[in-house]
Amino acid sequence: MSEIIFGPLLGLENDQLYSFCVLTRSGSPLQLKIADKLYPAKCLAKTPSGFFWRAEANIPATETSQQLSYSWHSPDGPAPLSTRDQVSGWSFTVPGSSEPLNIAYASCNGFHHPRDKDKEKLDYALWHKMHLEQKHQPYHLLIMGGDQIYADELPMSPSAPHLNLWFKSSEKQKRQTSDSPQIHQELEQLFERQYFNTWGQTDIAAMLASIPSIMMWDDHDIIDGWGSYPEQKQQCPVFQAIFHWANIYFRLFQLRGMQEPLLSDNHHASYCILFRRQLIVAMDNRSERQIERIMDEDHWQLIHNKVDELGPSADNIFLLSAVPVVYPDFERIEKFIGFIPYARQWQDDIRDHWRASGHRKERAQMIRWLLSEPMLRFRQRFILSGDVHVGGFGQLCHNKKQKKSGKPPLTWYQVISSGIVNYPPKSWAWPILRFFMDSGREHKKGPGGWFCHLLRLDNKEKLLRERNYLQLRIKERSSSLAWKTEKFDVKRTVKE
Fold this sequence. Notes:
25% helix, PhoD_2-like, 26% strand, single chain, Metallo-depent_PP-like, seven-stranded antiparallel sheet, 13 helices, globular, nine-stranded mixed sheet
């Protein structure tokens, strides 16, 4: 009998296809059971701790929602039990074909440094809040938009002496050091353990087992600032080894061995899913990232082609961009930060932003695509983002000149939610950031220009300085948004 030591992880692959994954101690065959039907599981990988299994089930929609229970079985024995909580069965909700969708969005699910965990007694309070809500009004989909784990602890792990030595060496030594079998072994163990430690938390584990999820990574799922460092550092052997193992475990745990929706199986992991006439476009903004580029032209073209293909079947579109597209400009900070020795550690964070000097041209091309005529087919258009440890809500639309030209109105809503675990900016840092940032208001003149700005949340600040996650209730011609914090909820409504 195979004992489950991690999971289950419940995923969404398309409108009717659900995936179910677990990690077991032994390699004995497994089967998934939903109602009275058995589905075979396939072993995708052997990890340092066990064997990773995936099963799939095609579940057609019915008029009303379905509450389905599932369990895992060995061919010749009862369901294996989890060593964590002794649970042998789980359940999830499949939305009815004509019912409003209830979606949760979360990001920034961890801490930069182990010492931060000791400062907050209720690290996972928002996951507990989601768990309580799930019991009364089940979520149909969980979207996680980046930093599902924090690999920032890699340089400090006491169980990785070879990796520790590399991190402590000079920048010149880092570039010259070759990767070694010991470093690869340490990295594989560390990434697996990070998923165990983070996703093994009681409320997180319960949600990942009972809400179908789709995920896209960001830098902390690899290492802080990945893609925003100078090329010599990015391309050195050990840094590439870090990406290699981060990518393997991202595809295993976050994508659950996903194949069909992926637009490319080699250079990036962008994908599109059509679920109940909602087109979800998950952009991989990390695999190809450089200081002067986020995604290459072929990558963008694949996304454009897939949106054109699936768009006629969708009512609304959700674009997952880990870093917000509509957000204050850090240009003034970017100009001066290189002259402040202590502040240079923030350079990679500044370079991450779409409005960083190296990404402005690519951002402009993206915005022109977002405001192009084919996007008129969608009733509601959302950009879902996290990363910045605040909540926010903004608009992107054509500039006044184009509106006067008689073009139909086309508006995107930028929705920002983070972090569900990580802290908001400190009280001492908040005034400094606000001093350097502009309002987020941007007016690009001329043909093909645009206007974007942040709106006030609940008639207060434009940015919500509280830990939060987002609830989206999607109806036929409107959507209700609620930023869930530990103290209160902030609500907005978007109409067609």
